[in-house]
Amino acid sequence: MHTFRSLPFHFFLVLSCTQLFLGVVTADPISYNCSGNSYSPNSEFATNLDRLLLDLTSKSKDQNFYNYTVGDERNRVYGLFQCRGDIDRHQCKTCIKTSRDEIIRACPNSTQAIAWYDYCLLRYSDQFFFGHVDGPEFHFRDDKLGELPHDGEEILVMVFVSHMVKQVPRRRPLMFATDSSSFPLIFSLAQCTFDLTYDGCELCLKHVMVEIESCCARYNGWQYHTPSCSVRFETYPFFNGSAPHDELQGRLCPDDGTPSNPLFKTNLFRLLHLLTNRAATSGFYKSILGDDPNYLYGLAQCRGDLAPENCRRCLVSAVYDLREACTNSRKVVLWYDNCYLRYSDESFFGIMDKEGLHTVSDVGDDFNVNHPWHIFEVAEKASQQQLMSADLQVVDEWNRNYHAQCTRDLDSIQCSECLINLTAQVRSCCQAKRSWRYLAVSCSIMYQVTFSSTEVPAPTPQGIPVPPPSLGPPPKGI
Ligand SMILES: *[C@@H]1O[C@H](CO)[C@@H](O)[C@H](O)[C@H]1NC(C)=O
Ligand SMILES: *[C@@H]1O[C@H](CO)[C@@H](O)[C@H](O)[C@H]1NC(C)=O
Ligand SMILES: *[C@@H]1O[C@H](CO)[C@@H](O)[C@H](O)[C@H]1NC(C)=O
Ligand SMILES: *[C@@H]1O[C@H](CO)[C@@H](O)[C@H](O)[C@H]1NC(C)=O
Ligand SMILES: *[C@@H]1O[C@H](CO)[C@@H](O)[C@H](O)[C@H]1NC(C)=O
């Protein structure tokens, strides 16, 4: 028998918010370098540098990158800034302003300086450097997170990152690229400064990739920076665009202990890799990995005819949540509105399991909505579809949306039986709620009201009971 633990809603909320790209401009530089000679505070060079930094700062409210030159031959100063390609103007300006203050404080007399921030880079020099690929470089590894857990995982990571890096030189003007993968879990970013040519950018990134091989590739997160280009890899989303995260709606991960057998983790790794990649294109995939007695069974499915990129995104979230929340289970089920992921060390393919959990929205408890035939209709429809998935929209005072689905390893009769059972459960748990989800291991039904206008209806006068909404005729085509 499975035991389900219903977690409070805000647990998931906190979980998913911490994973989002947070729009906070880091106040600390990740590094800086002061070099060259010393200039004196009242010199012409000092005045020129001041002008340069002011000009760059003011340009950063209109542009993500800019270069500028101030002064005559003897006291000339060259400077540029660039913000990361996913950063908006406002954040760019804030980052450059912070860098300028910091570079003045940290390199008070230097004729050459660079400050690297998460979101931007600021550099000046008394030597012409535009278009040059040179200068100091450094790397960070996420030593806290340790090494990648699986043999050969760094090869997958490096192949993936190299593929993304190849796109960068031709992406003018920002020469910036990001990419993410669900398995292994990869979020990666690379960028060249805009002053480089295609060849310069390619040269810089090639050099960096070679360095990464030796310093960093085995680690669970790293970044490598030079004045002209940088490459970063993490196992969590850290750039804008990686943010959309599907919200975990329910999970089954009993604390039944992962076997100490190291094969379990290796097989699980390979299984999830397979499931997320295959299911993303076909919407459904199931597979068995391992040898007797260490078999692992896995199934991944996306809702109805979800687009591959959304399917993939949802499964990326699932794998991420798995790492966070289900580290000690042999039998796991995760439910999302857009996808479903399950694995177990026991076979479950084709076995109908109507155990489930439900979540209800308590807002508008007084909605005395009865849906006698709608749930049967949507359940019936789902069991007859090839994708084992159906939607039903009923337009009346409210827009009522129903969705029913079975895992696609079941046959039509099993699906129907699973859903019919759920309709009975729904009566006791969820009937009068504005929205609810009933999630069973093999099937699920959801219901949601969306108001025709975006407004919540005016509260009814006190003492007058809310009339049940009339059932109205079903819309055409249903
Ligand atoms: C992320 O990108 C979107 C769309 O380009 C933009 O509207 C938003 O401001 C960006 N967020 C941050 C934190 O840069
Ligand atoms: C900006 O850099 C380019 C080379 O990339 C250089 O030709 C140009 O003169 C620079 N502009 C300024 C204002 O320094
Ligand atoms: C910077 O200049 C000041 C004043 O000219 C001097 O006291 C200080 O030692 C210099 N610092 C460096 C790092 O050159
Ligand atoms: C700073 O840059 C200079 C010039 O490229 C280099 O010689 C020096 O080693 C760098 N310092 C650090 C701490 O990286
Ligand atoms: C639904 O399943 C539960 C548990 O398997 C069972 O006790 C119940 O009688 C079933 N209800 C219907 C209507 O099939």
TrEMBL record:
What name does the UniProt record give this protein?
Answer: Uncharacterized protein
UniProt source species:
Persea americana
